[in-house]
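Progress note, sequence design subtask.
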């Protein structure tokens, strides 16, 4: 099995099944999962555990009080920020090993001040219907992670 060089970061996730599904995604791909700040649920939540099935022991889970604490631990890390407010599409960048893929909470997305500081690293997934405000967090994480894996040639070895 390959060693996945990417990291998924969830800042203040609110919906337990989304985090559970992302946990399963991380287990399947060997991707570390970083949970940052105040969670909208307990890590013992039944819905989160159910969505992640019995794969939780396979998840490299890291818990951070703040995003600054995470960034301080990885000072050379390259962080990409996913937001519907971004102007650049996720297929317009070249992901590299070690990249952090950062997602905000389901109801509000990433904090405005964070997006303002990282405008050149903000990415969006296109939504073609004006009736749809956003994509599901777990689906978004899967789309971005698998594009990063594709770009780095890791899908050919699985």
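Output:
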């Amino acid at each position: 099995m390959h060693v996945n060089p990417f990291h998924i970061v969830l800042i203040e996730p609110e919906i337990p099944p989304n985090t559970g599904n992302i946990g399963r995604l991380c287990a399947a791909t060997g991707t570390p999962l970083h949970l940052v700040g105040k969670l909208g649920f307990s890590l013992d939540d039944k819905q989160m555990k159910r969505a992640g099935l019995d794969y939780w022991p396979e998840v490299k889970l890291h818990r951070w009080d703040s995003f600054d604490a995470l960034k301080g631990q990885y000072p050379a890390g390259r962080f990409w920020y996913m937001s519907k407010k971004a102007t650049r599409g996720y297929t317009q960048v070249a992901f590299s090993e070690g990249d952090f893929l950062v997602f905000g909470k389901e109801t509000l997305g990433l904090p405005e001040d964070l997006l303002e500081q990282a405008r050149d690293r903000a990415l969006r997934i296109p939504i073609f219907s004006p009736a749809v405000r956003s994509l599901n967090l777990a689906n978004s994480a899967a789309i971005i992670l698998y594009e990063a894996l594709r770009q780095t040639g890791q899908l050919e070895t699985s």
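The longest strand covers residues 7-11. Work on this subtask will continue into the next period as scheduled.
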